[in-house]
Design a protein that fits this description.
Elements (H helix, E strand, L loop, with lengths): L1 H28 L7 H10 L4 E2 H8 L3 H13 L3 E5 L7 E5 L1 H22 L5 H25 L2
Antiparallel strand pairs: 1-3, 2-3
Helix pairs in contact: 1-2, 3-4
Length: 151
Amino acid sequence: MKQVYLDTILLIERLHRRFLDVVKTELDKLKFEDINNVQTLILYNIGRDQLTVGELTNRGYYLGTNVSYNVKNLVENGYLVQEKSPHDKRSTRVKLSEKGLKLVDQMDVLFERNVEEIGKISPGLALLTDTNKNMHQLERYWTDYINRLTR
């Protein structure tokens, strides 16, 4: 059981890294040289919303300092627009610029292509559904474990 557990943890990390490689390959193909794969996923997670950096951290499960650094770069490279909150001058909100929206649309094409190709593999949708169910159960277990230890 312990080896299966450890294999699962390592596989999760490898799958995440492999997915980042997929995004990087697509960025290279599309000739985007001023953004990296992690920043691209941050843009994708923002989507059409307007968020604070804190909300982005909570939504995307990114480390706070990395989000701040990446948001700064995304603003500097024209992918994000940063605005002061009208209600709280200490807080800033970010939203995608036209350049950011264009990239997110191109990533959506990649994801649609991936979904179509995975759909042709047996069992396709069933495999993803079962995988998601199992990953959610593991996430719940870890969340409950942390909550038990921090009470």
